[in-house]
Amino acid sequence: MKSNTVFGHLVHHFAVHPENLATEALSYILGTSPAASRAFTNFVRQVLTDCPFDLRFGTQQVGLDKSIPDMKCVDDAGNIRVIVENKFWAGLTDNQPVTYIRELPVGVGALVLLVVPEARLQIVWDEVVTRCGKKEIQVCDVQKLQAMFAARIGGNHYLAAVSWSVLLDALSTATGLAAEVDSLNDIAQLLGLCRTMEQEAFLPLRDEELTNLEMARRVVDFSNLPFGIVKEALNQGLIDKKGVRDTPNRYGAGSYVRISGYSAWVGFHAYQWNRFGVSPIWLNFYPDYCPVAEVRNSLRRLRNATPPRCFDMETGNYKWVAVPISLTSGVERLRIISDAVRQLRIIRDELGVQEPLAASVTGLTDSPGSIPEITPANQEEDLAVETILELGAEGGSLNLFGNRDAAGQWRFWTRTDETAMNELLDEEDLRGLGSPVKTGEAVSSLPEAFALLDKYSWCGMTPIRVHPEFRLAILDEVQKRGTPEEVASWSSNPLLNYEGTERGQGA
Known about the structure:
By secondary structure, the protein is α+β, with helices and mostly antiparallel strands. It contains 18 helices and 18 strands. It is about 35% helix and about 20% strand. Strand 2 and strand 3 (about 80-85) form a beta hairpin.
């Protein structure tokens, strides 16, 4: 959803630090609207019951240890009563919230209030509570109000976090009842900015981001880290990779594994990191590859933990379970991997010991609706699967697979994979398209197998793998079906053109 206000549109496209402009807008509204100012105070009094009315609002004032809170709300005696820190997607600085807490006046009721997108509320709150604990600041009497957390932090000082939408809705209601039309419109403009910042997928680029090679290095590190974690977990026997492979997705890189008998994907997932702020590395359980409801139930202790360590994900009607693998900061890579593997052990124990999967599963992707098996629906025997022909095309691939029973009788089937094409589409475009991976029914003769391939104009594709037993049979079929250019291309391909192949094999 895009902003329906000019302010939201302009700030989103041209402002380098939208938080600063949002702070100035909020301060302006509180300073010019009696109804909004009173509503703000009433809102604060849910936590700080003795907060006086007629506060004065100042922005970007240097405080303790050169900290610069977004906004200070001061009473008539000059005492700081509320320190407000506004956030969209920027991380907390070293000063937040501990330095702000220490700036609160002794013996006077005061509050540190963080205003954040609703999607970040739980994560930010957990982080500030953790930071307080590390600095031996007691957080007591925690309570959850309407889209707001609040707690006492000693004496008559308090800490709270609230969503932009809840705070601005309170101000909007008050100015509307007071018929302050201009202020009501100003709040609508600010609310439009907040909605834009919460919902727009692309954040404006900053020069320092493009020239910051540490950021690029981090992306490389996060992309490589899952494979180190998987390798060590394999060494310790916590997982296995039989029949599965390393598989990237549109948000990162990772690998499919089996943990406690369940197929799952472990890797760098930027979207989930951006949404929850917990970790760049995730273990995802997709419904195509395992019983998600069963996994969800087994991991209920992680879902109900504080903070949560397991999340329900949903895109349209497609639902999966995502478990963050927390990373240890300030240590070497081996220590990070060791701690990540420890977390995999906990997840495995929560899942319990399951029976191993009966069928070999290869070619897994994390695209919604994809089919994990390369064996066809009517193939019941667990026999060795061989690639007869693998073809590449723009946006996907076409495979002809086969296996033979104890009597030597072959069966063949096709599989198409348009995952690469789907990677170019956004989530809205993907809805309703179904699986990008489709496995066909099995046939029992080679002519029938080529008839299956004929549905896809296969002679115009590029051969990637060719079963040696079927080289000449395949080349014969190309000569029957292909254009002169296609026949020449296949004939000159080293996969099919070499001396020593006896005509008639595979017929």
